[in-house]
Design a protein that fits this description.
The protein has a domain at 2-88: Glucose Permease (Domain IIA) (Distorted Sandwich), CATH 2.70.70. Helix content is 22%, strand content 34%. It has 2 helices and 9 strands, in the order βββββββββαα. The protein has helices spanning 104-124, 139-151, and strands at residues 2-3, 9-11, 16-24, 28-36, 39-49, 57-58, 63-67, 77-84, 87-88. Strands 1, 2, 3, 4, 5, 6, 7, 8 and 9 form a 9-stranded antiparallel beta sheet that branches. The chain is flat, with a radius of gyration of 27 Å.
Length: 152
């Protein structure tokens, strides 16, 4: 459970398809996302869900609902579950599978983007900056600092 103010946006943990969006007994307003390869996430006690329908594709970071205190909740929070093949797992300690490699248009787009980024980096990597010593403190300030140090 993650404490948060009522109305705080809740975002999808990863690219997925909506498996369920609606009222679910103790969880109240709930969204269940299927991320493929046996991975699902559940988000419960929402004040309301986004307009979602079963089977709809959802991109990582998409707002799927808002924090609330529905169902058998004692205060506003996000009830978050991470499941692998139906079994609850700690998302902070599980080793995630490697991502699927890019191919086709996605790979071409990635190569174009990285080529442009590398070109921009190369334009600035040979810039030489001047090594400048800090200017000396004004004489009056140095004297005041020396006197203050002597008193203490």
């Amino acid at each position: 459970d993650y404490a948060a103010s009522t109305g705080t946006p809740i975002m999808a943990a990863g690219d997925s398809r909506v498996e369920f969006a609606g009222w679910q007994r103790g969880y109240g307003n709930t969204v269940v996302l299927n991320h493929g390869r046996g991975y699902t996430t559940l988000y419960g006690h929402m004040s309301r869900t986004a307009k979602l329908r079963k089977g709809q594709s959802v991109a990582q970071g998409t707002v799927i609902g808002y924090v609330g205190s529905t169902g058998m909740s004692t205060g506003p929070h996000l009830h978050y579950e991470f499941r692998v093949n139906g079994a609850h797992r700690n998302p902070l300690s599980i080793t995630m599978p490697p991502p699927e490699p890019l191919a086709g248009a996605q790979l071409a787009s990635y190569r174009t983007y990285t080529a442009n980024a590398l070109a921009r980096i190369r334009t600035v990597e040979n810039i030489i900056y001047a090594d400048i010593e800090p200017a000396p403190a004004p004489a009056g300030k140095a004297l005041a600092t020396a006197l203050a140090t002597k008193k203490g």
